[in-house]
Amino acid sequence: MSAALETLLLRAEALLARLENMLPQDALTEPDWSASIAFRYRRRGPVGRLDPVRHVSTIRLSDLREVDAQKERLLRNTAQFVAGRQANNVLLTGARGTGKSSLVKACLNEFADRGLRLIEVDKGDLVDLPDLIDLVADRPERFIVFCDDLSFDEGEAGYKELKSILDGSVAAATPNVLIYATSNRRHLLPEYMKENLTYTHTDDGEVHPGEVVEEKISLSERFGLWISFYPFTQAEYLAIVAQWLRRFGVDEASIEAARQESLVWALERGSRSGRVAYQFARDYCGRIGLAAA
Question: 280: burial class by Cβ within 10 Å (0-12, 13-18, 19+)?
Answer without folding.
Answer: buried
